[in-house]
Task: inverse folding
């Protein structure tokens, strides 16, 4: 993994100072502690921080140039099938100085132009400067595993792996994007192409961008298709899942540095470890963390898998220092980010980095094979579609009441209050309601009148529902998965692992996010993914006999931490001090009385409000880290247009 950045002027007369590119680059030293490089040319500056994984020699240093220096690249990620393209390029007369995948991309661009991305299998974000055409070409991988941000005012374009590198450009004054903040409050993360910073955007997954003569253009190059459905039997489907996932794991085990696996004891990470053990001539190194609270500890299951496959198992129990970790996470995540599992993910990556430089994980299993509890909730609600609206709503009210009375520890606990809403709505709107951390009723109570006037209250739900209704989707399950893959995966799950791993200079690889595997799984008949009583049906069936049944059929736990206890105990005072401070309230976003109500209800134990409070706390810490400390723009600032 690496950190990339650059400044490109619309004309060659634009002056790019070395110290500016160096300052942008070195905000990301954690992404690449092994090496660094810079290129300056007429109207262009490129910077790179390197975490060396393949070809550790100096020849792998970036920015990297072609034979005559007319094309240069900075690259972050892994191009897994680069070897087959390297040979093809040699046959076409290209000469290589290194053994890296980076140099293969450079020459692929010379041969194919923008279409080079269609040949690439992997996770990547890169920028290529074409000197002859005075054109910048940037691209991001299909699923959004690697980040890429940019800002443009027509005179120049800035880009980087992290917003903090763009903020390091002289006189760039950070300001919040209010619509992005509204999306964040709703979802718990900022969806692309928004960023939390006014004037900075994310390049969406599966898109490339060109900047030439002051104009920015973005284009999609791939979209996952769920149709037509494959005509395939269960036995053949099982065999194909194993075969394709094995190939994906094999590609991701190529490394010139030590490699291991994250093992939670869930089916996804356990399946990856099982296949790594088949493919490796050595014992696989596995890493697990646990907590003293039993409800959040999965170490016993991870231990069971480690014994089954005789791994070199490393198990760590952590007691997070909440006050120490929160400020650190706010800085590393760049944007407000309300997924509490970012904390254990960071500790897991930190523990693994003491032993390996690359670690495989099970990310993507739930999005491919339908593994979330919310999938079952929405599928259940969709079966009420034949009922008249009043009857559907009534059924939801009754079910919610039953779960409130008899299911306090059940799987639907987090969704019980929204059940009446999901039964009333169609499948896309219902799933949008399930995904919202702050639903529209909460937001109406939370937002100040002024903030509510400045944002479109329904925008986040509309964004979700639009993804769920896109062409070629004919059923509720595929509709939900399209939303997860298009929104939750790139903007929450993958952000979480990219930032947590890069914070400690660890490369994380996700075999279940291989796009060829995903294309196959997407077109499987829905019955192979989930039924009203079973999720991940074909994955469980495929690994039956390989993994212990206790792993395959146990209740899903997730990867959380006890913030509900923290907010009633050690962090209760801290929470009030942050959310009810004069500085926080003067931002003018929220209704003080409603925040106080949320805190009081949670501390009293009448309601579980910890997810909502965590959302607000991470927003406040982001403001303090990136907005409050920012200097005011000076008169005549060269970058004023970038944030207007």
Result:
């Amino acid at each position: 993994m690496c950190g990339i950045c650059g400044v490109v002027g619309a004309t060659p007369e634009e002056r790019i100072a070395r110290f500016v590119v160096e300052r942008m680059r070195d905000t990301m030293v954690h992404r690449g502690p092994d090496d660094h490089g810079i290129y300056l040319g007429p109207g262009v500056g490129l910077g790179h921080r390197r975490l060396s994984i393949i070809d550790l020699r100096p020849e792998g240093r970036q920015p990297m140039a072609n034979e005559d220096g007319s094309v240069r690249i900075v690259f972050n990620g892994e191009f897994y099938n680069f070897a087959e393209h390297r040979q093809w390029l040699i046959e076409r007369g290209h000469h290589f100085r290194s053994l890296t995948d980076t140099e293969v991309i450079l020459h692929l661009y010379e041969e194919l132009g923008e279409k080079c991305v269609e040949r690439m299998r992997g996770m990547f974000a890169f920028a290529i400067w074409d000197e002859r055409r005075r054109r910048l070409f940037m691209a991001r991988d299909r699923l959004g595993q690697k980040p890429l941000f940019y800002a443009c005012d027509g005179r120049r374009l800035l880009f980087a792996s992290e917003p903090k590198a763009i903020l390091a450009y002289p006189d760039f004054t950070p300001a919040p994007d209010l619509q992005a903040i509204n999306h964040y409050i709703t979802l718990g993360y900022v969806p692309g192409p928004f960023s939390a910073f006014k004037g900075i955007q994310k390049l969406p997954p599966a898109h490339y961008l060109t900047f030439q003569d002051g104009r920015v253009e973005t284009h999609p190059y791939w979209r996952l298709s769920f149709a037509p459905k494959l005509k395939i039997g269960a036995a053949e489907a099982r065999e194909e899942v194993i075969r394709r996932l094995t190939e994906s794991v094999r590609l991701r085990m190529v490394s010139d540095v030590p490699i291991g696996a994250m093992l939670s004891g869930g089916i996804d990470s356990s399946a990856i470890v099982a296949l790594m053990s088949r493919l490796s001539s050595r014992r696989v190194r596995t890493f697990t963390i646990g907590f003293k609270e039993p409800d959040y500890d999965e170490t016993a299951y991870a231990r069971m898998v480690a014994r089954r496959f005789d791994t070199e198992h490393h198990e760590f129990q952590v007691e997070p220092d909440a006050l120490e970790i929160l400020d650190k996470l706010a800085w590393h995540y760049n944007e407000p980010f309300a997924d509490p599992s970012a904390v254990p993910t960071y500790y897991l990556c930190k523990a693994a980095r003491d032993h390996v430089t690359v670690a495989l994980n099970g990310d993507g299993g739930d999005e491919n094979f339908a593994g979330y509890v919310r999938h079952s909730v929405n599928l259940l609600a969709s079966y009420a579609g034949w009922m008249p609206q009043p009857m559907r709503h009534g059924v939801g009210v009754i079910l919610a009441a039953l779960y409130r009375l008899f299911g306090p520890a059940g799987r639907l606990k987090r969704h019980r209050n929204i059940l009446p809403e999901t039964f009333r709505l169609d499948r896309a709107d219902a799933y949008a309601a399930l995904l919202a951390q702050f639903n529209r009723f909460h937001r109406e109570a939370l937002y100040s009148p002024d903030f509510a006037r400045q944002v479109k209250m329904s925008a986040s739900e509309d964004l979700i529902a639009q993804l769920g209704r896109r062409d070629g989707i004919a059923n509720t399950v595929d509709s939900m998965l399209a939303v997860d893959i298009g929104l939750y995966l790139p903007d929450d799950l993958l952000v979480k692992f990219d930032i947590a791993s890069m914070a400690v200079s660890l490369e994380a690889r996700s075999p279940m996010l291989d796009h060829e595997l995903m294309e196959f799984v997407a077109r499987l008949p829905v019955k192979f993914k989930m039924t009203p009583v079973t999720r991940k049906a074909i994955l469980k069936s495929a690994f039956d006999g390989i993994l212990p049944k206790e792993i395959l059929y146990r209740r899903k736990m997730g990867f959380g931490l006890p913030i509900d206890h923290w907010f009633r105990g050690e962090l209760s005072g801290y929470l009030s001090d942050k959310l009810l401070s004069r500085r926080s309230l003067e931002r003018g976003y929220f209704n003080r009385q409603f925040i106080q109500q949320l805190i009081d209800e949670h501390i009293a134990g009448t309601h579980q409000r910890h997810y909502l409070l965590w959302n607000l706390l991470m927003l406040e810490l982001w403001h303090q880290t990136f907005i409050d400390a920012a200097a005011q723009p000076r008169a005549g600032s060269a970058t004023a247009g970038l944030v207007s």
User: Anything to note?
Assistant: The chain has 27 helices and 17 strands. The radius of gyration is 24 Å. The chain has three domains: 2-175+190-222, 248-369+483-552, 563-627. The first helix runs from residue 18 to 26.
